[in-house]
Amino acid sequence: MIAEVIFWVTVGLVVLGALGATLSSSLIYAVFFLLLAMGGIGGLYVYLGSPFVAMMQVLIYLGAVGVLLVFAVMLAGPFWLRPKERGRFIKVGLGVALGTGVVIALYKGLRHHHWEAGPPHVSSAEALGRLILDEYPLAFELISLLIVMSILGAIMLGLLSKGRGKGDAMG
User: What pTM was computed for the model?
Assistant: First the structure.
């Protein structure tokens, strides 16, 4: 009973964070809601019995990527000085249409798929580390790439925001 309550509270945090991140009109609040969703996903990992993956979720996404997103927002400058965007209805309609298309494609593609059991449950951090680095290095490399891209994005936003006020950003 209590496990179900914890599960649904955690799912509620993830959904609240995701909705807040997508529907917020303030960019900094959107980042904070995104961090809430990422923290909730870490809680779901704990609930699923994967404390190592939960800790990596917290360290990598809440720690590294979250701080980089906040710095990128702070370096980007004042958003209230930019002109208002137009065509919001078209963008929302396009997003709904694309999202519906992706859901339909996934449903049609995975409907007749034969699902097999994954790798055996790994109980120690050492065995999980060996499994990640020996058997599945692509996931490890993609996480590294995500962090590098976040750093480059923060640097570029900082350079571009400085360039708007004083001539060219690169020189």
Answer: 0.57
Q: Is 152 exposed, middle or buried (0-12, 13-18, 19+ CB in 10 A)?
A: exposed
Q: pLDDT per residue over 157-166, tens digit each? A: 777 766 655 5
CA separation for the pair 5, 64 (Å, rounded): 30
How is the chain split into domains, by residue range?
Answer: 2-80+123-165
- Interior/surface letters 19-45, b for 16+ CB within 10 angstroms, e for the rest: ebbeeeeeeeebbbbbbbbbbbbbbbb
Residues 32-54 have pLDDT tens digits of 999 999 999 999 999 888 888 88
Report yes or no: 57 and 45 within 8 Å, Cβ to Cβ. Answer: yes
- Would you state the CATH architecture of domain 2-80+123-165? Up-down Bundle (1.20)
Tokens of 124: 């120690």
Instruction: Identify which of 134, 149, 147, 150 has the alpha carbon closest to the alpha carbon of residue 56.
Output: 147
For residue 160, the one-letter residue type is L
